[in-house]
Amino acid sequence: MSTEAFAPGEVLVFKLGSSLLTDPGKGLAVSHLHSWVDQIAELHGRGLRIVIVSSGSVVEGMNRLGLSERPESIHQLQAAASVGQSSLVQAWESRFHTYGILTGQVLLTHADLRSRERYLNARSTLTTLLSMGVIPIVNENDTVVTDEIRFGDNDTLAALVANLISASTLVLMTDQMGLYTADPRRVTNSELVTSARASDASLDAMVGTGSALGRGGMITKLAAARMAARSGANTLVVSGREDNVIRRIADGEPCGTLLTADQPLLVSRKQWLASLPAQGGIVVDAGAARVLRSQGVSLLPVGAIRISGDFKRGDMVSCVNEQGEEVARGLSNYAAEEAEKLCGHESHEIERLLEYKGDEELVHRDNMVIITSVS
Question: How far apart (Å, rounded) are the C-alpha atoms in residues 209 and 293?
Fold first, then answer.
């Protein structure tokens, strides 16, 4: 197995850990950050869509607050994150500004992705930013989370973001060359694992613990790769300290460890959608049923006849024809009461009918799986 050069339009998620982004006792490693931005800006210029999941806010806040050890108290961690987050985002923004590239800050909690409604909100925000040529800078919202809802590390967050936006590849940048057969800091004859299936159970015995400053390590990176693989994304674990590593992997040069998904991106996402139970239904007319099945397009309000059930925005709905046969299922962009008002109307009428400008589709094709006719 080997990586290939990325193509224009592909969505990539780059995660950079605290051990890379910060120098112990000195705060942000600005010179390194500038080098990564220079390379990512080049990929952006090639037409790739990039999301950055950036650690470092807590460590930068620790430095500014004069703390030598990572706090154990959740409230002290939140305070450090609050102090450090502004500096972290400013460092990314100012360097990308030299290339005329805009960035957008996105702070997430586990609850944002656990709720299907907030999942859709987060997905819509990120995909809109990408469509506008903006590079989102994502971090866990450390200033408000508690122990019960923390992602635990930004490797997990990065994998969830990759799932969220259907990224083709998750790149976990760390201070190690990749995944080794044993911890190279303790076992001198350990060997780099250049490629493997993310699902390979033999990898579990190879991972070790994390650094003092970060919360992650190879354990969380392997778990993140498996999480990303569930939606069809491959994962690269590479050293951020290697020269031009971002350019090199973008050109298809083998670097670090490639952990591949068992199934293609589209297949995995559609399987996930198909597994969700329907909370309600939308009856569609014959024309909508035909184009949904033949062309896989989005379901527009004009093609809907009536609504059944009491579903919320983000809930799974079953789209059936007038004979009651299921045509498709997907995540609804509107609650049942709102969808009822939109049935049979053109998309340009949505703002008048709902008194706000919402999505043009009742169900977007990216959040839909077509049900093959059995007749």
Answer: 49
Phi-psi region of 241 (alpha: psi -120 to 50; beta: other; left: phi over 0): alpha
Is 330 a domain residue?
yes
Residue 262: CB atoms within 10 A of its CB come to 12
Distance CA 221, CA 11 (A): 19
Distances (CA, A) of 204 to 174, 175, 198: 18, 20, 10
Last residue of a domain, one of 221, 244, 269: 269
Instruction: State how far the alpha carbon of 256 is from the alpha carbons of 185, 259, 281, 316, in Å.
Output: 16, 10, 47, 39
Q: What 3-state DSSP class applies to 292?
A: helix
Residue 240 covered by a domain: yes
250-289 residue pLDDT tens: 999 999 999 999 877 766 667 667 767 899 999 999 999 9
**In this structure, are 28 and 163 located in the same domain?**
yes
Q: Which domain holds residue 141?
A: 11-269
Rounded Cα distance, 4 and 258, in Å: 11
Residue matched to tokens 């931005």: 37
CA atoms within 13 A on the CB side of 331: 21
How many domains are there within the chain? 2
Q: What is the DSSP letter of 175?
A: S
> For the ranges 72-76, 280-284, 331-335, 351-355, which has the lowest average pLDDT?
72-76
pLDDT per position as a tens digit, 83-95: 888 889 999 999 9
Domain assignment of residue 2, yes or no: no
Q: Give dist(CA 162, CA 95) in Å, integer.
A: 24
Q: Check whether residue 127 and residue 242 sit in a common domain.
A: yes
The Cα 242–Cα 175 span in angstroms is 9
Distance between CA atoms of residues 163 and 161, nearest Å: 5
